[in-house]
């Protein structure tokens, strides 16, 4: 009972964005962190799993091949939260979150309203419920987007750098809450994230991608995040610590010269 | 999950209050439109009392025959045409702005109106029919077909990979220039008679309204508005941006084509019967957006009603501005719309570059 990706490829014209990505598994009840340098194809991977980007290969959820589902069915089970949330639509926060709920379910109206309200409260957004999207700060808008994602109660939630615009308080709050959400709802949550310390701290499983759209490592954070591998994939000299009783620390020390990627492709 | 205790003054209550306020605004606008319709019918060269006119509308058999004929044969068709055309143009504008994610999109700026004019001019000047065996409705059918061609071209461009909605809007503007140029050629070769007809038509006029034309415009509304309503949530989702709309499960390409064709149908029928009337399709939705926001459940009916009200008021103004002279409504909407258009551009510059 999990999400599995086998031999997934994506091309834009002649450019290969994802190159035969295989062996990715995400399990319910825990956070899976998707990490990798810029341009490694993280967003494309998440979009292809959600069915928003055309791809070849095999993606299955709970033993169901996802390409057998239509757009609406797939979106009901898997929700992809885009990286850039720029909409300035003249909708109130409440309306925007209700919209996300109503496009996923056709349940009882009162129940939908309750669900929207609870989600807003949990994300500390209820005091902005009446405000228009255009009047929100970047961080508030990102939290609204997260509210839109979870209010749909999807089986799989894929978040593309959901904490990039958040302050430290809300980064921790959102990540802690996502961990709890995954456990309680037995949800599969994949989160693309640049902060490796946060990724190591909150995820149980990791997908590390490298330039050229290839998977460089998967496994528990302790196995994936080695100083040697960070030098290879990120071209950085970094210090990785797993102190007893404290959150793990990945401290980047210096950028090193990138000595060609193993596949011999140009970095882009 | 850390769930705080729900408060009594909940966001649900505030949301429901907001919905009630929106419905009230709809009712108020509808009542204003109805008042404007009655005033429109009561206004004209023949001075009749409001009571006489009302009686003639409600029970034409009891009213003096002259008043009944004028009201039913001349004034009511014009007044109702104003309402239906206003609804059509504003609904079309509202949905074009929605699917193209652009505040400046409307049948006029996207070249749909220009294409329709070109089609009509083909009929008026050259007698060319784009649809065989149609003499009576030649002008209308030509206008309609060209409007459809223009909207399909815009949509085809959107199917190319990496084309943004901004490109679609630019494509529409290019089409507007193209069809204006071809229209210019036709005007250049036109005979004096057909040129006069063409000019009159392109200024926009309600004066040749008839019950059958109202019927066709209404039919277009009856076909398209339910489609818009049915797609309401998906259309609202589109305003979250293409990517998020697709994540929400919306088939963006198909929705965009459907709604573009429906909007073009609305615009084409309106333009075919009353000529070029600019700015209603732009201004109506903007007023609606300011009043009720962009939740399609209220945004669409509000846009339609605002368009109807504006058009009806324009019809009154066109009769009363210069006593005894019926000004083309297209001129009046343009004159009123222009300051609004400019303020819109200035406002959007502040938002984008401010």
TrEMBL record, chain A:
Q: Which InterPro entries match?
A: AAA+_ATPase, ABC_transporter-like_ATP-bd, ABC_transporter-like_CS, P-loop_NTPase
A Pfam entry, by short name: ABC_tran
Q: Which residues form the ABC transporter domain?
A: 3-236
* Keyword Nuclease annotated: no
What GO MF annotations does this protein's record show?
A: ATP binding; ATP hydrolysis activity
Q: Note whether Nucleotide-binding occurs among the keywords.
A: yes
SMART domains according to UniProt: AAA
Supply the alphabetized keyword list. Answer: ATP-binding, Nucleotide-binding, Transport
Origin, by domain of life?
Bacteria
| Gene3D superfamilies membership | P-loop containing nucleotide triphosphate hydrolases
Report the family membership: Belongs to the ABC transporter superfamily.
**Under which name does UniProt file this protein?**
Iron complex transport system ATP-binding protein
Question: What is the originating organism of this protein?
Answer: Kushneria avicenniae
**Upper classification of the organism:** Bacteria, Pseudomonadati, Pseudomonadota, Gammaproteobacteria, Oceanospirillales
UniProtKB/TrEMBL annotation, chain B:
User: Where does the record say this protein resides?
Assistant: Cell membrane
Assigned GO CC terms:
plasma membrane
List the GO molecular function terms.
Answer: transmembrane transporter activity
InterPro entries, per the entry: ABC_BtuC-like, ABC_transptr_permease_BtuC
Chain segments annotated as transmembrane:
23-46, 66-87, 108-131, 137-157, 169-190, 210-236, 257-283, 298-318, 325-346
Where is this chain primarily localised? membrane
Q: Name one Pfam family in it.
A: FecCD
This chain belongs to the protein called: Iron complex transport system permease protein
């Amino acid at each position: 009972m999990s999400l599995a990706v086998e031999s997934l490829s994506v091309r834009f014209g002649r450019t290969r964005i994802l190159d035969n990505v295989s062996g990715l598994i995400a399990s319910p009840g825990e956070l899976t962190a998707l990490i990798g340098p810029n341009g490694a194809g993280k967003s494309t991977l998440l979009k292809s799993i959600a069915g928003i980007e055309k791809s070849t290969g095999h993606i299955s959820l709970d033993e169901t091949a996802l390409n057998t589902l239509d757009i609406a069915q797939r979106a009901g089970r898997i929700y992809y939260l885009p990286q850039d949330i720029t909409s300035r639509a003249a909708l109130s926060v409440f309306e925007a979150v209700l919209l996300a709920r109503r496009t996923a379910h056709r349940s009882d109206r009162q129940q939908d309203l309750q669900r929207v309200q609870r989600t807003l409260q949990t994300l500390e957004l209820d005091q902005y419920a009446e405000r228009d999207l255009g009047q929100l700060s970047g961080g508030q808008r990102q939290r609204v987007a997260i509210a839109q994602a979870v209010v749909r109660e999807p089986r799989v939630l894929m978040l593309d750098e959901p904490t990039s615009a958040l302050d430290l308080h809300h980064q921790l709050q959102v990540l802690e809450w996502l961990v709890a959400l995954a456990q309680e709802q037995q949800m599969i949550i994949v989160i693309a994230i640049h902060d490796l310390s946060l990724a190591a701290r909150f995820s149980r499983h990791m997908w590390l991608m490298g330039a050229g759209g290839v998977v460089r490592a998967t496994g528990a954070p302790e196995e994936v995040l080695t100083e040697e591998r960070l030098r290879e994939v990120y071209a950085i000299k970094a210090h990785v610590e797993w102190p007893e009783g404290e959150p793990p620390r990945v401290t980047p020390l210096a950028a090193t010269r990138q000595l060609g990627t193993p596949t011999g492709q140009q970095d882009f | 999950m850390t769930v705080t205790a729900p408060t009594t003054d909940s966001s649900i209550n505030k949301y429901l209050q907001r919905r009630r306020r929106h419905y009230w605004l709809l009712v108020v606008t509808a009542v204003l439109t109805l008042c404007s319709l009655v005033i429109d019918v009561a206004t004209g060269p023949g001075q009749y009392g409001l009571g006489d006119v009302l009686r003639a509308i409600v029970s034409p058999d009891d009213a003096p025959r002259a008043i009944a004929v004028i009201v039913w044969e001349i004034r009511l068709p014009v007044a109702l045409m104003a309402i239906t055309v206003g609804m059509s143009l504003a609904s079309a504008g509202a949905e074009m702005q929605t699917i193209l994610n652009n505040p400046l999109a409307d049948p006029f700026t996207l070249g749909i109106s220009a294409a329709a004019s070109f089609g009509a001019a083909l009929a008026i000047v050259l007698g060319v029919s784009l649809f065989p065996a149609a003499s009576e409705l030649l002008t209308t059918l030509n206008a309609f077909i060209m409007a459809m061609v223009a909207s399909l071209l815009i949509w085809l461009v959107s199917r190319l990979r990496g084309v943004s909605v901004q490109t679609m809007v630019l494509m529409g503007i290019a089409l507007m220039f193209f069809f204006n140029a071809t229209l210019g050629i036709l005007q250049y070769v036109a005979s004096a008679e057909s040129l006069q007809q063409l000019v009159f038509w392109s200024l926009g006029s309600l004066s040749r309204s008839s019950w059958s034309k109202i019927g066709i415009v209404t039919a277009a509304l009856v076909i398209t508005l339910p489609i818009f309503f049915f797609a309401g949530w998906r259309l609202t989702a589109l305003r979250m941006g293409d990517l998020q709309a697709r994540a929400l499960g919306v088939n963006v390409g198909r929705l965009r084509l459907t709604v573009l064709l429906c909007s073009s149908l609305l615009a084409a029928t309106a333009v075919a019967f009353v000529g070029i009337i600019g700015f209603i399709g732009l201004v109506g939705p903007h007023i609606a957006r300011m009043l009720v926001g962009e939740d399609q459940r209220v945004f669409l009916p509000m846009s339609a009603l605002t368009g109807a009200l504006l058009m009806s008021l324009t019809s009154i103004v066109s009769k009363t501005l210069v006593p005894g002279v019926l000004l083309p409504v297209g001129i009046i909407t343009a004159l009123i719309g222009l300051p609004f258009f400019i303020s819109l551009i200035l406002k959007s510059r502040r938002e984008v570059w401010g």
